Amino acid sequence: MDTLTRLEQTIAQRRQADPSQSYVASLHAKGLPQIARKLGEEGVEAAVAALSGSSEELVGEAADILFHLLVTLNARDIPFAAVLAELDRRDGVSGIAEKASRSQ
């Protein structure tokens, strides 16, 4: 089992935990808007680290994005496998062509 699959399972388990004992449960208790806000914050922090931070800082922020993305997907009951399937679907397709197909 890979790291992201294990993390996805841990997030699913912790969603039901006591919010005073689990960060994941505390995010879920605050609702999807708070979860989405945290995902956005982490994205901004990663962008800043990409421009002015150390490699280690960017790696840490990238990990935070992946974690909060998995929490967000869990909140919407979307399995990470759906994201991987979408990436597989896009494999070999030009990014320009793929983006153009979404705007139609």
From TrEMBL:
GO terms for molecular function: ATP binding; phosphoribosyl-ATP diphosphatase activity. Pathway: Amino-acid biosynthesis; L-histidine biosynthesis; L-histidine from 5-phospho-alpha-D-ribose 1-diphosphate: step 2/9. InterPro entries: HisE, PRib-ATP_PPHydrolase-like. It is found in: Cytoplasm. It catalyses: 1-(5-phospho-beta-D-ribosyl)-ATP + H2O = 1-(5-phospho-beta-D-ribosyl)-5'-AMP + diphosphate + H(+). Its EC number is 3.6.1.31. Keywords: Amino-acid biosynthesis, ATP-binding, Cytoplasm, Histidine biosynthesis, Hydrolase, Nucleotide-binding. One of its GO terms (cellular component) is cytoplasm. It holds the Pfam family PRA-PH. Signal peptide: none annotated. It is an enzyme of class 3 (hydrolase). SUPFAM superfamilies: all-alpha NTP pyrophosphatases. One of its GO terms (biological process) is L-histidine biosynthetic process. It comes from the Bacteria. Belongs to the PRA-PH family. This is Phosphoribosyl-ATP pyrophosphatase. It comes from Erythrobacter aureus.
